[in-house]
Amino acid sequence: MLSPAEQLPARLPRGLLRDLPKVCLHDHLDGALRPATVVELAAAAGHRLPVDEPGALGRWMRTSAGSGSLERYLETFEHTVAVMQTPEALVRCAREYVEDLVADGVVHAEVRWAPEQHTAGGLSMAEAVEAVRLGLSEGVLAAEDAGHIVSVTQILCAMRQGDRSLEVARLVVDNRDRGVVAFDLAGPEDGFPPSRHRAALELLADELIPVTLHAGEAAGVASIRDALATGRALRLGHGVRIAEDIDIDLAGDVAVVDLGRTAQWVRDRGIALEVCPTSNLQTGAVAAFGDRPDQHPVDMLYRTGFTVTISPDNRLMSGTTVTDELALLVVHFGYGLEDLERLQRNAAEAAFLPLEDRSALDGLITEGFEGLYA
């Protein structure tokens, strides 16, 4: 079977999609490692991998992640997290992450990760955050020296099933002027609601720190509502199961859209959905709608006025990039340049950046799409 990139129409070749300026809001650092890097770091750390050849490891990751279960998907992180326990490893992974963004045409990214998972080698969470900051800075400076514009900020995650969210929230506050822009809850969604982390979320609200929470991936509309009400989330990580709160009836050639209260709140207030199509299909997040790319509700959400953004989630496990995710939309939903530009503007507007920086980002998008509509 041909990949979406191989099915692209001549008017939108993959090279053009790659070169378009893109904004990435939902990208996990521990899910973005290069297979060769995992192999090298595992050998240095004495960590045993299921396979130790980069190509085979990449295939194993994609197969395991494509099981249809979020829990099985998350198991693949055992190996990436295990090799990210030293300052040197974190610096390298962060620097290479920026290099891969540049190769993908991304001009701004907000990379998220959970510091509490990177202390097994003796690092404090603060030291881990500093190592990632250093690696990102090295990558950005190298990109600038090579003539590329890219900015990268950090979103710190606390694990839903853990008990360190207040520590992580304080770490976000402490690093708000050092490239950390927001807080997230990651890990098993079902059974671990934001209300378990009320103290952390209240601290963040008091400090006026933005929050984006994983919601509407492994659990449904009630989880999204809790993220909004308890978590005060300004964006939703994935959020695709908001589609379960929407009814569409066809009356002849006219579609009548009926939004539930939660869906209406999300749409009308422009709360951005951080949609990751390939990952959603792998984890079964959109199983209620089907298991094929053309059955993903992303297009329905986009057409009915939701603030949809597109990200890869985990580049290694999903074998994807932002370019690949856009190619999927072009092939399966017929998206054109206007749609792709709208998606990038949505992401730029939703980025956790000052207004002046978001305006500059919007200018980069305008410049990148200019002259392509002829």
UniProtKB/TrEMBL annotation:
Source domain of life: Bacteria
Enzyme category, top tier: hydrolase
Single GO MF annotation: metal ion binding
Keywords, in A-Z order: Hydrolase, Metal-binding, Zinc
UniProt keyword Hydrolase present: yes
GO biological process, one term: adenosine catabolic process
Cofactor needs: Zn(2+)
EC numbers, comma separated: 3.5.4.4
Transmembrane stretches, start-end: none
Ranges for domain Adenosine deaminase: 21-363
Pfam entry (one): A_deaminase
Stored Gene3D superfamilies: Metal-dependent hydrolases
One GO cellular component term noted in the UniProt record for this chain: cytosol
Similarity section: Belongs to the metallo-dependent hydrolases superfamily. Adenosine and AMP deaminases family.
Protein name: adenosine deaminase
